[in-house]
Amino acid sequence: MNVCARGVRVVATALAAGAALAVAAVPANAAPPRSASPAFLDPAELPPHPSSDWYAGPVTAGQPDPLPLCVGDALPSTASHRRYWTEYDTGALQVTVVERSTRHAVRLAALLREDLADCAREVMERYPDVTATQKYYGRLDVEEGAHVYGVHTVAEWGASDIGLFSVGRDGRTVTVVQWGRMGTFEHAQVAGFRATTVTAVDKLN
Question: I need a labelling partner for 15 at 20 to 30 A (CA). Which of 69, 152, 171, 180 fits?
């Protein structure tokens, strides 16, 4: 496999939140996820897909694999995550970290926001055959606040992917939500994703 092509696939997989990987990783007879505290998003709480229901894997302890684009390096091993997918080209991921104290949570949330604010530049440095652009969609007034970002990547061979990311905090708990699909900023379900983020942060307490 050509290294550049592999790098592009990593970006595309990260933006799509590992939808195909999640389908392969969760067998049809998998046991339902055990209840977790804090709660994770239910599939129906994600931005509606026009042609498919959302599905979800179990809440899983540890870092997701693959790590989410840009914020993955900052996530501690104490994280928990849940993957979501549709029958088409859309996937999502939620990662939640319960820190030792509110002070540590504030620092983690700030670090994640810094990483997302610099995401497009980081992607292009890591993958020279990818062009990335990004937008900041503002702060949401929920609990201690949440922030929403969008990142669009285009590969030299033509792949185009759009991802939405949010970072929110409630007390000593921080959550990252990621949504992705093939497309451009025009295909980003920003309003629905903002509503999803509010729900995700509300469920942290």
Answer: 171
The model's pTM is 0.84
Please provide the distance, in angstroms rounded to a whole number, between the alpha carbons at the two ends of the chain: 45
Distance of CA 85 to the CA centre of its chain: 12
- State the alpha helices, DSSP H only, in the chain: 3-15, 19-25, 102-117, 119-126, 190-202
Q: What is the pLDDT of residues 42-75, one digit of tens each?
A: 999 999 999 999 999 999 999 999 999 899 999 9
DSSP summary character for residue 58: -
Q: Convert the pLDDT of each residue in 7-55 to its tens digit.
A: 444 455 455 443 333 333 343 344 334 344 689 999 999 999 999 999 9
Radius of gyration of the chain (CA): 16
The C-alpha atoms of residue 102 and residue 96 are separated, in whole angstroms, by 14
How far, in whole angstroms, is CA 173 from its chain's centroid?
16
3-28+41-202 belongs to CATH 1.10.3470: no
Q: Would you list the domain boundaries of the chain? A: 3-28+41-202
3-class SS of residue 189:
coil
